[in-house]
Amino acid sequence: MSSFSEFPFRALPEALLPWYAACARPLPWRESRDPYRVWISEIMLQQTRVAAVLEYYARFLAALPDVFALASVDEARLLKLWEGLGYYRRARNLKRAAEVIVAEYGGVFPEAYAALRALPGIGDYTAGAIASICFDAPTPAIDGNVLRIAARLADCADCVDAPSTKRALHEALAAAYPPGQCGAFTQALMELGATVCLPGGAPRCAVCPAASLCRSRMHGTARELPVRAKKQQRRIEAYTALLLVDPDGRIALCKRPESGLLGGLWALPNAPGARGPQEALALAEAFGAKPLSLAASAEYTHVFTHVEWRITCYRIACAAPEGKSACIWADADARAAHYALPTAFAKALEHLHLEQR
Ligand code: SF4
Question: Is 42 a catalytic residue?
Fold first, then answer.
């Protein structure tokens, strides 16, 4: 076992770049070095798989083709474009950063790592990716994939979640960036992590372009690396969600408070705790609905990064809403056009068999 400072990362570009040129998957965000396009792809790819991102990416860019369009988009439309990708804060930060780029940089992306890093929603990884891919800067983009590859190459058993380990890798890797090919090197590392040096017990060492350099392959330790900090157990919370349906097939939606999980997003009327059927009917009244009958119920789980929601949901037929209500009532067309419903609540529509048309 050794440390990052002892490994010859400088030999890595020579091993990876020809392989990347020959084997890289053709992905739409690799067709251009336009920082807007690279930025949108990097943010979408955080916590979302490539296959799932492809459709969203095309639709998003068709609707918002540049930083000016993103800066001026209405938030409801933005969230609708993001619906299903989850982690909606990412979308809001995109808009906030676009506003800064328009206001402070005249709509032209800043090139310096520090200026990129200062934009809302752009962390070390994304700043490193944009600066290297779009502006050929020797700025590593270190995510879980790169930490895994580096730990295996160097046969390094230091905990990769420790800030000191990340700093050591950043320093060692930055010194290895090949001038003129920084973007390709960043992307070659990403590609290696996505297609060859896979997590868990599945590294494909037999087809790895860096195999001759790899110390963990030589020592038979690849499957034990990287060493990660113990994950905190997710907190479990119970909720009750109501699918209130009026005689015209419209359903009730309410806005969540601005702060907290899914802050400011549309939701089904809900309350903490797993409520029984009678309590659910009372809860519907508390939201200003006139419940007539309880039509169905279901239970499901929705997992966030740190929290797991156990949701009990009820479908309740309601009389036509009158007067003041804590909710708006939206039919399928209005929902499709204007109201982004996070997956945590959209799942209730499936479980309770609400036709989406
Ligand atoms: S040789 Fe195996 S463990 Fe080493 S970098 Fe390649 S795939 Fe990963």
Answer: yes
